[in-house]
Amino acid sequence: METVFLKASTAAVATAAQTLQAGELVAFPTETVYGLGGDATQSRSVKKIYKAKGRPSDNPLIVHIAERHQLDAFVTTVSDQVEQLMESFWPGPLTLLMPVKDGALAPEVTAGLATVAVRMPSHPLALALLKETGLPIAAPSANTSGKPSPTKARHVQEDLNGRIACILDGGSTGVGVESTVVDCTGEKPVILRPGGVTKEALEAVIGPVLTDAGLKNATEKPKAPGMKYTHYAPQAPVYLVDGTSAYFQACIDLFRLEGEVVGVLATDETLAELKGDVHISTGQATDLESVAAHLYDGLRAFNHHEEVTVILAEVYDEAGIGQAVMNRLEKAAGHRYLRASAR
Ligand code: TXA
Ligand code: MG
């Protein structure tokens, strides 16, 4: 299949919308990462999404809408808490679980679960495209399963060229990590995946919010099926370095003594104090938002430095967007840490 590459314009949005209505797949920018969209009401389209990404069939998709009333077609009830969160954070990087109406969506979307994950993105191109189709659009991140999510149209091309009908290029996405997935269907609201809307911001609206223990704990299964897979990983193994710059340098030196070629993923300030083989910046230490925005591009960049055999990455404070940044880094590293001893 030849993948059509469209630069953002009104005509491009119209073409992309027709492509979706015809049951084909379109990659489009959102404020978090690029999504791979298909008609959520057609099994034929949704199956193509799983196939193009090589995604395990037990990992459900997020349904994207442009208008609140679209929920009525495929959700049975909207709780007060969900109502409050939609009011405060939609359109934006927040995905909410809601009980799904039987038969309203292609069954593959929810992978057999009783809930559907829904979000209204705030990116103007995404909203324009969704409005133009009038359809609920199922869209996972537009990467090959297991790779870092795409924050640029070029990343989508690297992974999916020839496998999907169309890529709508809207430049770099803003937030850089995916939406926060929140489950309000139980007794207490739980973050199943940290993301663009911080825990602190959620709590300011609905009070205490838990974080799924399965994200940190190797023995407990995460509640979002997608969070159990190795993910966001470049080709070389990643280790997280928790210690001073002197400790970080000692780790680099040790790997080099063993003949490894060491890639370093860190902020400008940290990189200035280190000497590894390939340095990739995640932005400024004083600005965790910039780290989130650069993270996936940084992880992907090592795949263009094939000589790198091991990647050492800086760690960040888990406050605010740092919770999402550290969750993705821990997954990329398979939770492998190099820690300076406590004393
Ligand atoms: O920012 C985003 O959310 C991006 C953009 C494109 O919107 N999308 C995205 O989709 O990251 P995806 O498919 O890569 O991640 C969806 C996550 C997975 O971890 C999946 O397991 C979880 O949401 N999920 C989806 N439906 C669920 C459900 N009903 N119950 C629990 N987890 C669910
Ligand atoms: Mg994904």
From TrEMBL:
GO biological process, one term: tRNA processing
Catalytic activity, as annotated: L-threonine + hydrogencarbonate + ATP = L-threonylcarbamoyladenylate + diphosphate + H2O
Principal cellular location given in the protein's record: cytoplasm
Organism the protein comes from: Brochothrix campestris FSL F6-1037
Residue ranges annotated for the YrdC-like domain, each copy included: 10-197
SUPFAM superfamilies: YrdC/RibB
Residues where ATP binds: 55, 59, 115, 141, 149, 193, 232
One of the Pfam families matching this protein, by short name: Sua5_C
Domain of life, per lineage: Bacteria
E.C. designation(s): 2.7.7.87
UniProt cross-references to Gene3D superfamilies, sorted A to Z: DHBP synthase, Threonylcarbamoyl-AMP synthase, C-terminal domain
NCBIfam families: L-threonylcarbamoyladenylate synthase
Location(s), subcellular: Cytoplasm
InterPro entries: DHBP_synth_RibB-like_a/b_dom, Sua5-like_dom, Sua5/YwlC_C, Sua5_C, T(6)A37_SUA5, TC-AMP_synthase_SUA5
Molecular function, one GO term: tRNA binding
Annotated residues for binding of L-threonine: 32, 64, 119, 139, 179
Enzyme class: transferase
Protein name: Threonylcarbamoyl-AMP synthase
GO CC term, one of those recorded: cytoplasm
Family the entry assigns: Belongs to the SUA5 family.
Keyword Transferase: yes
Function: Required for the formation of a threonylcarbamoyl group on adenosine at position 37 (t(6)A37) in tRNAs that read codons beginning with adenine.
UniProt keyword list: ATP-binding, Cytoplasm, Nucleotide-binding, Nucleotidyltransferase, Transferase, tRNA processing
